[in-house]
Sequence to fold (154 residues):
Amino acid sequence: MKVEKATINDVKRMHELVNKFAGKGEMLPRALSELYENLRDYFVIRGKDGEVIACGALHISWADLAEVKALAVAKDRQKKGMGAALIKACVVEAQSLGIPRMFCLTYKPRFFKRQGFKEVEKMELPRKIWAECYSCPKFPDCDEVALVFDVPAP
Fold:
């Protein structure tokens, strides 16, 4: 499996993949415009036919913090290490950028804990809460779990 940076041609499939899970209440939805605007944050894994079967992003929040977001693996491709491979790509990118900590907000904390993330109170992420969460329809009653990961030195 090969993790690659997403291209403009991947956006519609990424949108479909993420919002399929969002429709089931398993993650927050992403607008197509948001995916285009943040395309450089995204990694993808493609199937043999070239279609995106997994995606995820590392979005810089501050000088010392980046968010792993919109991590989605097609239902029929789960439990094959693709999510872990996307997390690893995010770690490598955080290392190359000098970002010491990553975080996520998720409904699937067990997966992230298996990748080395540790659960924290959401208020330990004040820059995230006030920058982006403030405009979320679930704010201030967020039911996602916050986790952090200390990025090892390269």
Observations:
- The domain at 3-150 is CATH 3.40.630.30 (Aminopeptidase).
- DSSP finds five helices and seven strands in the chain.
